[in-house]
Structure formats: C-alpha cells, structure tokens
Please model this.
Amino acid sequence: MAIRLIRRYRFAASHLYRRPEWSEEENLRRFGKCSNLPGHGHNYRLTVTVTGEVGPQTGFVVDLAELDRIVGREVLEQVDHHHLNIAVPEFAEGGRIPSSENLVAWIHPRLTKALPAGVRLVSVRVAEDEDLAAEWNAD
Ligand code: NI
Model:
C-alpha cells in the first residue's frame, strides 16, 4: 500500500519579470509592477509530496533527513536568499521568467532524479504568498 508523505519548506528569494526583447511599455503592460527594476522578494513555501511503500522496520516512506538533504541541496541552497534571475541560469535575462509556474517546472526534474529508489515524486507546490501558488501533480 503506497502512502503519501507531505513535507513543507520555506525560502526567501527575489525575482524580476522582464523580457529584454520587449519595450519598457510592453514589459509594464504584461508584467505590471513585477517588471520594476531590480525586482522584489517573496517568502516562498515549497510543498513536496512523495509516495512509496512504508518500510516495515522504519515505518517511513522515506528517510526524512535524506529527503531534507535532497531538497536542501537541489533547491533551497540554490534559491534561498538569492535573486532568482541571477542565481538560477534558467532564469537569466532572456531565459524563462521566474514565475511560480516556472519554479515548479525547474524543481520537478531536479527532485525526480535525486530521490532514492522506491520513492516517487507526486506533487510539487510553490506558493509565493498565501494567495498564489503553482502546482504540478503526477495524476
Ligand atoms: Ni513576485
């Protein structure tokens, strides 16, 4: 019987929504205040859900310390107290916009490839505040 484990993390980061190929007016029209230089910050919440069989001896789906180390290394250390447009190559000028949607898309493959055998990622949720979140779900 597969059981889901849900773990929530926090990080603070700043970002800027701006397309260099667009004019100042177009950036303002499409992105609003999110295009204001040099950017603005959020206290993000990252919720990671994994599934797997419960170990008969441990009672765990995953070693929580190991999950925390993986999320720390693959995500939190890369973004916490950083400017996303500078710290993450994918979000550099001319690249993808560091929206919550694109953060989820960036986090998903990093965690998928790093999780231990027998543990499957089923959801990644990034909330930039209590009113807005983006989420990927396996089903
Ligand atoms: Ni923002």
About this structure: The longest strand covers residues 2-15. The radius of gyration is 17 Å. The helical segments are 24-31, 64-79, 84-87, 100-114.
